[in-house]
Amino acid sequence: MFLRYAALSGGFAIVASACSAIALTRAPTSIQPSDAVECTDSLAYPLIDMSATVLSGILAISLISRDRDEGETPTAAIGVGTFALAAATSAIYGTYQVNRCRRVKTKLGLGAPATRPAPANERTPGSQGGRCLDDGSCNDDLKCDAPMQVCVPDDYSEF
What we know:
Strand order of the largest sheet: 1-2
Oligomer: single chain
Strand content: 5-15%
């Protein structure tokens, strides 16, 4: 029974040990304000990796205890521990990439952080009074006021 549990947990650890490293879509390194950013902003993959880390770590500890009692070399425990280390590394990498994606999307005005709702008076980027980076990021008949980074009419008397 113990070996069946060990094999099942070890199989799960192998499959899930690099979930974030393989499945995440990273944010691009260079972005323009007009670019559509497609990246993973959910912590689902890093949480799967963290679960695999915990399960593999528990299994490795129990295998070490079992092998020590029987006087054997903990070969299986070393293997499962290696998978736990890979899953932990992938979880850290995944969490970093998700946070980076969230920062990029927030910087471009594509979404507010999940923990903080957008202010009710905030205007849509590119519209009059909305945020901008340059004249190209404002709608027609508007220009980007450089010091304030806000879209304003070409003729200030209309504002």
